[in-house]
Design brief:
The complex is a heterodimer of chains A (265) and B (271).
Chain A: H1 2-6, H2 8-31, H3 41-52, H4 55-88, H5 90-104, H6 112-119, H7 123-147, H8 151-159, H9 164-201, H10 207-216, H11 220-248, H12 254-264
Helix pairs in contact in A: 3-11, 4-5, 4-7, 4-9, 4-10, 6-7, 7-9, 8-9, 9-10, 9-11, 9-12, 10-11
Chain B: E1 21-31, E2 37-48, E3 53-57, H1 64-72, E4 79-84, E5 87-88, E6 96-99, H2 111-115, H3 117-121, H4 126-139, H5 155-167, E7 173-177, H6 185-202, E8 205-210, H7 213-219, E9 222-226, E10 233-238, H8 253-263
Parallel strand pairs in B: 3-8, 3-9, 6-7, 7-8
Antiparallel strand pairs in B: 1-2, 1-4, 4-5, 9-10
Helix pairs in contact in B: 7-8
The chains are: A mainly alpha (265), B alpha/beta (271).
């Protein structure tokens, strides 16, 4: 009880949870809403427990995670590489960036049907979509981060006879890291969307595929259960990025990184 | 009574020897955003002898920092010549150490790693310089802080690391731009005495910019007095106080005379 008094927000959060889901359960029971319209929380939990134990769920989960992580890795690496290139050579920025911005305004999920036609119905096309989606946040944040180096730090390194490359590696890159981490965070969230949308368009496996299947068979509780799994994936990835950030950017005060995060979204 | 009537343009380096720094008719003109031009420095002539400690005082905007940046090789001059050991300064030199107004420590590097930055950038032997770095840490009272990060240090401690960083590669010339400006008066006094001790041991050629007339007199062999924009040298005051200097000297008659001689250029508003 004393613990609750010390952290009242925990008690309030728990209360909100109980009221929302209790209310949901109650409304379904009172109004007798059919499960194919809206399943009760208890149905969802039951469906979730059933699903988690099956081998096919593990297979679909594995496929989607593979698409997210491989696609993200490819997109992040490319975004970092081109971001560094553009940030390091101002001429490239001026000549290349307009095209990148133009391409960035294309809604990437709208490319999914095309990509599926080009790269097939398998895992490959989802990796391509996820990579394209992950590419831009990391590219844009890398370029912004490389630009953010305080002028006095560059002047300091110049005064000590640093070369352009030394300035790049020893000041610009570390200064860009907080920005790049924000890009990674955003890119990972969007990578989840990319993989699912790719699977919606056409797939033989994956959580998006499984969700469509359950949708067609009117298993609404199953659809909700997969939604919860998808947001759990997002939360875990986000927490992993936060842990990485704390480890690598230990020197940046939390307030500053917080304002970075909010301004990037 | 000290002689303060020396004309501004006469270089005071010992005759017959090449000055470490030779500045002739140095002019710097900045273009402004609205198409005008600002003359930051106008026809500055100055020689600094090897091992000499020179301080520059002047009001804000008199081009002191511009002068230092040109000497450091990080800013281009508009006209005139600037020589370091007889060679024109076109780019930063390995023989120069610079201390800026702010410590500018890299926050992701430890104290020791920040100090060794010039060694790293200039690809000097790290092992050989490690002892020097530790020696300056000890001198600055920072033994035991090697592995701390800058944010764990006070402002005064950070600036001491910045000074150690400028000295670690044993440069012949030390350029300092209001290095103690951000510190409180007490810390500032201590740092001045420390700096004098380091200089006494190593006899580097030092050019130090300051707002404080007392600091300028306490440290210098010669005080260069500059006018507001366009910056030019209005007087060179040789300080003939005995060395080693002590804080007690600030209260002496001779010290007061130097301070008054310099202050009359600023209408008495500066301390």
């Amino acid at each position: 009880m004393t613990a609750l008094l010390r952290r009242p927000e925990m008690a309030i959060a728990a209360l909100i949870f109980v009221v929302c889901f209790g209310g949901w359960e109650l409304i379904i029971w009172l109004l007798d809403v059919p499960p194919i319209v809206l399943p009760a929380p208890s149905d969802i939990v039951e469906s979730m427990i059933d699903m988690l134990g099956t081998a096919s769920f593990a297979w679909h989960l594995g496929v989607t995670l593979y698409e997210i992580l491989v696609g993200f890795a490819v997109g992040a690496f490319a975004g970092l590489f081109f971001g560094c290139l553009i940030g390091r050579f101002p001429l490239l920025e001026k000549s290349l960036y307009p095209y990148l911005v133009a391409f960035q305004t294309v809604p990437k999920v709208a490319l999914a049907p095309l990509v599926v036609i080009w790269f097939g119905f398998g895992v490959g096309s989802k990796i391509v979509i996820t990579a394209i989606i992950s590419f831009f946040p990391i590219l844009a944040n890398t370029i912004a981060g490389l630009r953010a180096t305080p002028a006095d730090q560059i002047e300091l390194l110049l005064a000590f006879t640093a070369t352009r490359w030394q300035i790049f590696w020893k000041v610009q890159m570390p200064q860009a890291l907080p920005y790049i981490m924000v890009g990674v965070d955003v890119a990972l969230m969007m990578a989840v969307i990319g993989a699912i949308v790719g699977e919606f368009v056409s797939a033989k496996a994956g959580l998006g595929f499984l969700m469509l299947q359950k949708n067609f068979s009117m298993d609404m509780a199953g659809v909700f259960a997969i939604l919860i799994v998808l947001s759990a994936i997002g939360v875990i990835l986000h927490l992993a990025v936060q842990a990485l950030r704390r480890h690598f950017i230990f020197w940046l005060d939390t307030q500053k990184s917080h304002s970075l995060e909010t301004s990037a979204q | 009574m000290p002689d303060t009537s020396q004309p501004a343009s006469v270089p005071a380096a010992e005759s017959g020897r090449q000055p470490t720094i030779a500045i002739r008719r140095l002019t710097k003109i900045y273009p402004t955003a609205d198409g005008h031009e600002i003359t930051a420095l106008a026809n500055v002539d100055l020689d600094i002898a090897n091992g000499e400690f020179v301080t520059v005082v002047g009001p804000s905007g008199c081009g002191k920092t511009t002068l230092l940046k040109i000497l450091a090789g990080i800013m281009r001059r508009s006209s005139g010549s600037v020589l370091l050991n007889g060679a024109p300064i076109e780019r930063p030199s390995r023989e120069v150490g610079v201390v800026f107004q702010q410590p500018i420590l890299l926050p992701w590097r430890t104290v020791l790693s920040n100090m060794l930055l010039p060694v790293e950038l200039q690809r000097r032997d790290r092992q050989a310089h490690l002892d020097r770095a530790r020696q300056y840490l000890a001198l600055a009272g920072l033994t035991g802080f090697e592995d701390k990060y800058p944010h764990e240090l006070s402002g005064g401690m950070q600036q001491r690391v910045g000074i150690g960083r400028a000295l670690v590669h044993d440069p012949a010339v030390l350029l300092m731009d209001e290095p103690f400006g951000a510190l409180d008066a007490m810390t500032r006094d201590t740092m001045n005495i420390e700096l004098l001790r380091i200089w006494d041991e190593s006899r580097k050629t030092v050019l130090l910019i300051t707002h404080s007339i007392a600091e300028a007199v306490l440290l210098a062999d010669r005080v260069i007095v500059m006018s507001p924009r366009p910056g030019r040298i209005v007087e060179v005051v040789p300080v003939k106080l005995p060395r080693p200097r002590t804080l007690d000297m600030i209260n002496s008659e001779a010290f007061g005379h130097y301070v008054r001689a310099i202050r009359r250029h600023f209408g008495g508003s500066h301390s």
